[in-house]
Amino acid sequence: MNEKSVVKYTLDSCEKCMKCIKACPTSALSMVDNRIIIDGDLCINCGRCIRACHSKGLLAEGSPLTAIDDYDYTVCLVPAALSSQCGSMEKAEEMFANIKDLGFDEVIDISDIEGAIMNETFRLADDISKESVITSFCPVVVQLIETKYPMLIDHFAPLRYASELAAMMVREQLSEREVGGGTVGIFYLCECEAKLVLAKHPYDNPNREVDHAIAIVDILPLIQKKNPNSERPKLEFSRAGLQSCNTALIPQKPEYLMADGSEKVENILDLAEFDLLKSFRLLYLFNCFNGCVGGHLMFGNGYLAKNNIHALSPKDVKEPPELPFELLYCEDVIVEKKSQVSVAEKMAFFKKVNEVLEQLPGLDCSACGMQTCRVMAESIIKGERKLDDCRILSAKEKSNDAE
Question: What is the rounded CA–CA span in Å between residue 190 and residue 61?
């Protein structure tokens, strides 16, 4: 499923440091008339540009908490990554109570769903009748494969996102219960920028099961308070689910390759594309360092989460549920971006690009507003830029004219 870009540019004029352009792994950013332009077809919502901009000119926003007022009955889904920030069951129960006090009718832990999906991943990898499996529950990795590594799509296991699966199950349960009638709103607390798009609003994704995604950092002060009058719920976390959000705790085997961090993920996909990792049965990939506990919209210490998980689940008292195939899998999780261009046309295009590239200085300085000289050459062939837009070539011409 192609996702929309959640990244917005907020400055009136770019300071031309080019850091965001250089940081983008898919060359989705460019500068035109002193403003940053984001190509929605190429943006994978990784957030690297946001963290690279020292002027805070790029941001990603989810839904505001006030969106709960639009529904008669509201449910909040809490991911294992957030629960794992609590150092004790008492702290976790206190946090869940505070979340409910924000105005939700129900607050649901989805660690059991996350555990069930992880277990299905291992089942797939251990099935010797299949080729090696690539799996990730990070929208960044999914879109990265769609955009840069389409040859690997057939190796990708199209398991549903935990938030989607949990929302489907919640809606089915609510349809069988009396909840006062009216509209039901399902909210998901997000660990990173990429997951903000896993909801119907505000990015107009009508096929999503979740209605709104809220950045965890946006409600942080509200869920960390201590309210002695709040009624604390009784919680039971799935150990497998809590493990699934931290690469240090995911069960390992010699034939499993776990990777966290964007650079490592890209390196692994580069190697996998050339079939250099076929000895591994499973490639389990996370864009964020330490897994989802290291999400950029999280808080706390991702390293301490490992110890917290042990404290929250000394044993797996809540086994992940056995879920049917039709719920676990969804063909639309990852899609191949079909091209209407023939191979002959592609080769002709690349030939033209290389001819223009030979005329450019090859310094990849980004002074033209593009990430590299090759990206600039492609834009010139597409008619979006001119050779004169290269500042180095223009400076040389002016120098020659002056002589």
Answer: 11
Give the end-to-end CA distance of the chain in Å, rounded to a whole number. Answer: 56
253-306 pLDDT tens trace? 999 999 999 999 999 999 999 999 989 999 999 999 999 999 999 877 777 788
pTM beyond 0.70: the answer is yes
Give whole-number Cα distances, 378 to 36, 375, 392, in Å: 18, 5, 18
Which tokens belong to 148?
């840069």
CA dihedral 176, 177, 179, 183 (to 10 degrees): -10
Residue-wise over 311-329: b if at least 16 C-beta within 10 A, else e?
ebbeebebebeebeeebbe
Contact assessment for residue 36 and residue 28, using Cβ atoms and an 8 Å cutoff:
no
35: β partners: 32
Spatial distance between the Cα atoms of 51 and 370, rounded to a whole number of angstroms: 19
User: Which residues in 273-379 belong to E strands, given as ranges?
Assistant: 282-286
Q: How far apart are CA 114 and CA 6, in angstroms?
A: 24
